[in-house]
From TrEMBL:
<feature type="compositionally biased region" description="Polar residues">
    <location>
        <begin position="112"/>
        <end position="135"/>
    </location>
</feature>
<protein>
    <recommendedName>
        <fullName>Zn(2)-C6 fungal-type domain-containing protein</fullName>
    </recommendedName>
</protein>
<feature type="region of interest" description="Disordered">
    <location>
        <begin position="112"/>
        <end position="138"/>
    </location>
</feature>
<dbReference type="InterPro" id="IPR001138">
    <property type="entry name" value="Zn2Cys6_DnaBD"/>
</dbReference>
<dbReference type="InterPro" id="IPR036864">
    <property type="entry name" value="Zn2-C6_fun-type_DNA-bd_sf"/>
</dbReference>
<dbReference type="GO" id="GO:0008270">
    <property type="term" value="F:zinc ion binding"/>
</dbReference>
<dbReference type="GO" id="GO:0000981">
    <property type="term" value="F:DNA-binding transcription factor activity, RNA polymerase II-specific"/>
</dbReference>
<feature type="domain" description="Zn(2)-C6 fungal-type">
    <location>
        <begin position="33"/>
        <end position="63"/>
    </location>
</feature>
<feature type="compositionally biased region" description="Low complexity">
    <location>
        <begin position="1"/>
        <end position="20"/>
    </location>
</feature>
<dbReference type="InterPro" id="IPR053181">
    <property type="entry name" value="EcdB-like_regulator"/>
</dbReference>
<feature type="region of interest" description="Disordered">
    <location>
        <begin position="1"/>
        <end position="28"/>
    </location>
</feature>
<keyword id="KW-0539">Nucleus</keyword>
<dbReference type="Pfam" id="PF00172">
    <property type="entry name" value="Zn_clus"/>
</dbReference>
């Protein structure tokens, strides 16, 4: 029953095998015949260059062009596609460069304002007047945002740049400022300064200076540090501690008077860090004495006419205390490598003297040296933190930290790494020593406590920490990624408002934590800030000051009397130095306003560069806070403004004041900002703004002849406000 199918299968298999064998036996099939064989419709043996038939018939053999197969057509299409892509992609590098330039020239939607400076990579675009109320910033190029906290970069804001470029007569060198390097050039700009500090020591002192030190003017012996009586030295030390040390509290009065001072006198001013430190204290005391009413001094001394000693290469500059400072510089090299507390303090005081002479680059170098020396001291011997002078190490650490982060915030200069030790260093305690048997020293220490200088320094540290937190928070906002389609991440505007609101509450908490004797009413009417209407003790009081006379004349006030005291020659006098305390409070409160302006500055950038319809009520309120933080800085008001040599980082304050004055000018001419000023600012703001312009102008005018940073600020301010001088 199954045989038939089997036979059929066998038959089919055999037939298939035969067919396969038949196919294998077939000859070669021509793939491309010549034209002659094609016409003859005969097989061509495809011999090259002439087939067999054409060779025998002596005919021209032409194979013609091969016909493309389906596979060949696909390859040709792919080749054409690749060629087309190459033609389009060859322009990508050029297009990319153009986009990068456009990105730098177009402000971003979120006013990262580079804040304080380089809004969107220091934009070089200008905003035309017709677009002030209709500027649309729809594209959200997050990658273009870069937060920089330098207020000097406010000059690169499009609205600011356009305003300054349209000032007539034209501001000299304004384009160089826009196109110049980063704001850290403020320090290095003094390389073009032809002034040189006088290099003579005590031996070069004149008769009047000798008399002030209790030395006969006709004494033929060369004047040395050992020639000065301990009584005079102690008096100058007292002046230093009642002025500079309250503002820069890096030394301890009792430790210095009972340990350092006697040791230096006993060793006759040998070449060590302690002797160098005492020379620096004497130099800074002379700077403080130079601010006493009636004791004016010439900025350039050593010339018969009181003029600078001018040569082809430099102008010799002789500020107060330079002879003592040079005595310190002569000893500095012998102790520069020591790892001691005095070494750290020595660098700090050297920097303070350089800054009092407007030598900003040297000041920065000394602060960096002090920070590195402080790190070495702490790392080399942990037992130092438990020694009797441990609190002074804490003071030096936090002072360097405040200076470092302030310089980084204002000039974008790098840190030394000192901040990495912050968790290991406690806040200074400023202990009240009661074991001293020196009654005069006890009185001076009591006056120190009454000035609250230690308490203020601790609050300055906490404000510094908050300023660092604000800067880091705004940088995180600027660098936050933008949500892609479908993601629920908050937008950059919302993130900015949330961050600023949180940090603003912390700033309010800092102000609320101040005790009553340090707190102040931020909404105090502007009339309460007016300077007292005092007359100078003599018409020529400012005639020999390093600061211009017309600057102070514009304020119609004179320096407070009693800055040093009624009788500086009486070592038993109980002198409180009210004005040095006033300068200290002014610095703390001005720092608060500066930090507040840094926090709310992005909203001012947004108000200047966006359509008013895009501004929320939160934006308007924050911009108002920014405007309020730009007025009535106590540092601009007498007596603080009349003792600028004691104020740290003068170059930063000059730039910050310039930024505030530029903003106040824009709040009058920019439609959006002007409307916010008129409708949202507190009552009396107009008077506050006018006083701020008056005092800020006086500040910069006062320094312009002695400070290159102030000179640059003055050129801008002079053109913007059409000032004389």
């Amino acid at each position: 029953m199954n045989t038939e199918p089997s036979s059929v299968a066998s038959s089919w298999a055999g037939s298939a095998a035969g067919m396969s064998a038949h196919r294998k036996e077939r000859g070669h099939i021509a793939q491309r015949a010549c034209e002659v064989c094609r016409r003859r419709k005969q097989k061509c043996d495809e011999e090259k260059p002439t087939c067999g038939y054409c060779s025998k018939a002596q005919l021209e053999c032409d194979y013609g062009s091969p016909k493309p197969t389906k596979k060949d057509k696909t390859l040709v299409e792919l080749l054409d596609l690749v060629t087309n892509i190459n033609q389009h992609t060859s322009h990508i590098p050029e297009i990319s460069a153009q986009l990068l330039r456009l990105r730098d020239n177009i402000p971003t939607l979120l006013p990262t304002e580079s804040s304080a400076g380089s809004d969107v990579a220091s934009s070089t675009a200008t905003v035309q007047p017709s677009t002030q109320t209709g500027l649309s910033l729809a594209p959200r190029h997050q990658a273009a945002r870069r937060y920089v906290s330098t207020l000097d970069r406010i000059l690169s804001w499009p609205a600011v740049r356009q305003t300054l470029e349209t000032v007539r007569p034209k501001i000299p060198g304004i384009q160089a400022i826009f196109e110049g390097p980063e704001s850290s050039s403020v320090l290095f700009d003094q390389r073009r300064d032809t002034r040189c500090l006088f290099r003579g020591g005590l031996e070069s002192m004149g008769a009047q200076d000798r008399i002030a030190l209790g030395i006969a003017p006709d004494d033929p012996r060369p004047l040395q540090m050992t020639s000065i009586s301990p009584h005079i030295l102690a008096e100058r030390i007292r002046i230093y501690f009642n002025t500079f040390n309250r503002i820069h509290p890096v030394l301890d009065r009792q430790y210095f008077m009972e340990v350092v001072f006697p040791g230096v006198v006993h060793n006759r001013f040998c070449e060590n860090a302690a002797s160098t430190l005492l020379c620096l204290v004497m130099a800074l005391a002379e700077v403080a004495v130079a601010d006493v009413p009636g004791r004016g001094f010439s900025a350039f001394q050593g010339h018969q006419d009181g003029e600078p000693s001018n040569t082809a290469e430099y102008i010799e500059y002789r500020p107060p205390g330079i002879e003592f400072f040079n005595e310190a510089r002569r000893r500095l090299g012998f102790s520069v490598g020591e790892c001691s507390l005095e070494n750290v303090q020595m660098f700090i005081l050297t920097g303070l003297y350089y800054e009092s002479c407007s030598r900003h680059m040297e000041f920065w170098n000394m602060i960096i040296s002090a920070s590195l020396a402080c790190q070495a001291l702490i790392a080399s011997n942990s037992a130092e933190m438990y020694a009797a002078h441990a609190d002074q190490i804490c003071r030096a650490f936090w002072y360097c930290s405040i200076m470092e982060t302030g310089i980084q915030r204002d000039l974008e200069l790098p840190l030394t790494g000192l901040d990495k030790l912050q968790s290991r260093i406690q806040l200074p305690q400023f202990p009240d020593y009661v074991t001293t048997t020196d009654e005069l020293l006890r009185v001076h220490m009591y006056n120190d406590r009454m000035s609250h200088y230690g308490e203020i320094f601790v609050y300055q540290i906490s404000l510094r920490n908050l300023a660092v937190k604000i800067r880091n928070g705004l940088m995180q906002v600027a660098e936050a990624p933008i949500a892609n389609l479908g993601q629920t991440m908050p937008g950059p505007d919302d993130l900015l408002r949330t961050t600023v609101d949180k940090l603003g509450r912390e700033l309010e908490q800092w102000h609320g934590s101040l005790p009553d004797h340090l707190s102040w009413d931020r909404n105090l009417p502007s009339a309460m800030y007016s300077a007292p209407d005092l007359q100078p003790s003599s018409p020529s009081f400012y005639a020999h000051s390093m600061y211009a006379a017309d600057a102070m004349d514009a304020l119609h006030s004179a320096p407070m009397n009693n800055f040093i005291g009624a009788d500086i020659t009486n070592p038993n006098a109980n002198i409180g130095f009210p004005n040095s305390d006033g300068v200290l409070l002014a610095i703390m409160r001005s720092n608060y306003y500066h930090v507040e302006s840094m926090l709310y500055r992005p909203f001012a950038y947004k108000a200047l560069h966006e359509h008013p319809d895009n501004l929320t009520e939160t934006d308007l309120s924050a911009t108002t806070r920014f405007l309020h933080s730009c007025v009535l800085w106590p540092i601009m008001v007498p007596p603080a403004s009349q003792h600028k040599r004691m104020i740290p980082c003068l170059y930063s304050w000059s730039q910050n004041i310039l930024g505030a004055l530029i903003v106040l000018h824009l709040s009058l001419i920019n439609p959006t900002l002007s409307k916010i000023r008129q409708s949202h600012c507190r009552q009396g703001f107009e008077q506050e703004a006018e006083l701020t312009i008056e005092w800020g102008t006086a500040w910069i005018r006062d320094l312009k002849d002695a400070d290159r940073t102030a000179q640059r600020c003055w050129m801008i301010l002079k053109g913007l406000y059409r000032l004389d001088g």
